[in-house]
Amino acid sequence: VQLVESGGGLVQAGGSLRLACAASGITIDDYAIGWFRQVPGTAHEGISCISGRNGSTYYADSVKGRFTISSDSGKNTVYLQMSSLKPEDTSVYYCAVRSSCLLLMYGLGDYWGQGTQVTVSS
Known about the structure:
Blueprint: E1 2-6, E2 9-12, E3 17-24, E4 32-38, E5 45-51, E6 57-59, E7 67-72, E8 77-82, E9 91-98, H1 101-104, E10 111-112, E11 116-121
Parallel strand pairs: 2-11
Antiparallel strand pairs: 1-3, 3-8, 4-5, 4-9, 5-6, 7-8, 9-10, 9-11
């Protein structure tokens, strides 16, 4: 199983970015894919998750209303559209996979990507 994140970069506050998590070795429709972020020295923060089985989504309060998670089964890819970005969103963003969002949002991912850096300037 491999998860590859892309789409990170430098953006001004108030701007937008779209992250992608391309999966191989699994079919995303059979799993939950979640997005996390981590600032060095701190624990992972689970920010969003989508269930491939029923399409249900979850958002942390810190990103609710600004971030949108979606999936494309044909591309076996999960996206995180990030809008109204704030400097405090600066972090390395990771995607991970597990059987359910409930387990995944506790940080219990079975597989993790390598991460992509998002930097929001003020």
